Amino acid sequence: MFKKLLLTVSLSVFSVFISFAQHEEATHEGGEGDFVERHEDHAEEAFDMGGMIMHHILDEHGWEFAHGVKLPLPVILYTQEHGLDIFSSAKFDDHGVYGPYVNHHEKIGLVNDHHATVWDFSITKNVASLFLSAIILIAIFLAVGKGYKKNRGKAPSGIQSFFEPVILTIKDEVVKPNIGPKYEKYLPYMLTLFFFILINNLIGLTPGAANLSGNISVTLTLAIFTFVMVHVKANKNYWMHLVAPPGVPGWLKPLFWIIEGIGVLMKPASLTIRLFANITGGHIILLSFIGLIFLFKNYAVGGGVWAIGTFMSLIEILVAFIQAYIFTLLSSMYIGSAIEEHHDH
Hints:
Elements (H helix, E strand, L loop, with lengths): L1 H29 L5 E3 L6 E3 L1 H9 L5 E4 L2 E3 L2 E6 L3 E6 L8 E2 L2 E4 L2 E4 L8 E2 L4 H26 L8 H21 L7 H17 L12 H18 L2 H8 L9 H44 L2 H41 L6
Antiparallel strand pairs: 1-2, 3-4, 5-6, 5-10, 7-8, 8-9
Helix pairs in contact: 1-9, 2-8, 3-4, 3-5, 4-5, 4-9, 5-9, 6-8, 6-9, 8-9
């Protein structure tokens, strides 16, 4: 099993090398590239590692799997002047301008009015990856559910046998101990949260994939879901602890409210930043190692980086599981503290 995983990861890292090499070759042939600066003597061309890394971790209106292999996505715009416009992102490929619109570093505006408001509802790479992960999750759990019906009273088999230990671990080791006796009503949300983050973390490690879990808008949305659930389901004890904490003098309560308010907001902030920073940081480190090949243009460096890249990819797979686990664990703890009865404590 480990040998197969190591081979898969090595091939993935190698495919990233090939993708970058094709990009560099096309840049030499095409004259000017997004990540190349020409010296005055035209003898050397510098590789812009920062530009390459940002290109691969940020969102875009098309989905570029490798250089020359790009999936156009629908661009959906609304402006007061032009109304609703829908067209392919391929229209921007030549010069970044199509009709009255200009795409400047994936921010679309009007050519003649830079201050006009353009409402962008486009299906970007991250949105397309979100749809893909949703389809994968639905397909997996429909298969798992079918397995439970088919093997009722029997030992699990097939895909059910793979996911059942993970489901039971999240249930028995994360959700039940932290939420308490009422854990069952929150279990579907926690399992959805865990597997959604895990699937997107793993998809993000494949060559040419979107960095969905490393998008702070996505991690913030997940944190807001937990924040809303905490405060919608919170009981009287939770609110009284925030508003009228026992044993605190009346003159000190306003200061205590400020402290508690900061604490309440820090919980979703910690969920947001932890997942975003760990996933994005891992991608940046891995891409930085890969970029060393094109920076030094040395075969020895390439072989060493390939080995290091494979090792780092294995670490990133472990981090993908850990971050999904931690996000689910903290969400369970926050919900559990909000619904905990006084006698439970």
